[in-house]
Amino acid sequence: MRLALLPILLAAPSPDPSGEATAAIVPPIVPVRIQAFHNSFKVGVRALPMRDGGDLIAAEKVSHKVFKAPRCAPGGAAFVPVLDADVAADPGGYWQEFRITFDKSLTCQQLTSAGLIEGYAAQGLLSVAETPYVYKLLPPTKQ
């Protein structure tokens, strides 16, 4: 038997001035498989992206960090995100994105642990900036 995923119909506010709700097709949220580093080991995780986690951050429901360096492409490859904790220890937990900017004295490079990032930041070799973006990370599924 073959199953198909179907979009869910939800009531959404109508863009027309009448103010009546109309049915809108909302695609299901599908986890995206990503690679990340944790304690110098590359791990595969599933990410449920969220746009703005301001409410979660304000309510202190975010307990982990994911470090990204969007302007860094070491050796021409994209910077692989770095996690400050093991996803399996808190499956489904919320992770706030922090952006890394390398100082001129430290060239763009792939970092593989949160401890290394925080150490370089303490030395002034890179800066770490909080963003309002929050993700829900899940352990990888077995294939």
What is the element layout, followed by pairings?
Layout lengths: L7 E5 L9 E5 L5 E7 L2 E9 L4 H5 L5 E5 L13 E2 L10 E9 L11 H9 L3 E13 L5
Parallel strand pairs: 5-7
Antiparallel strand pairs: 1-2, 3-4, 4-8, 5-6, 7-8
List keywords for this structure.
143 residues; mainly beta; 2 helices; globular; disordered N terminus
Structure description:
This protein is mainly β and 143 residues long. It has one domain. It is built from two helices and eight strands. It has helices at residues 54-58, 114-122; strands spanning 8-12, 22-26, 32-38, 41-49, 64-68, 82-83, 94-102, 126-138. The chain has a six-stranded mixed β-sheet. The radius of gyration is 19 Å and the shape is globular. The two termini are 20 Å apart. 16% of the residues are buried. Residues 1-19 have low confidence and may be disordered.
Strand order of the largest sheet: 3-4-8-7-5-6
Order of helices and strands: EEEEHEEEHE
What is the overall shape? globular
The total number of structural domains is 1
Q: Please tally the β strands and state the result.
A: 8
Category from helices, strands and their pairing? mainly beta
Q: Estimate the strand proportion.
A: 35-45%
Could you list the spans in which at least 5 consecutive residues all have pLDDT below 50? 1-19
Rg over CA atoms: 19 Å
Average pLDDT confidence is 74
Largest sheet: 6 strands, mixed
H/I helix tally: 2
What is the first-to-last residue Cα distance? 20 Å
State the share of residues found in helices, binned by percent.
Answer: under 10%
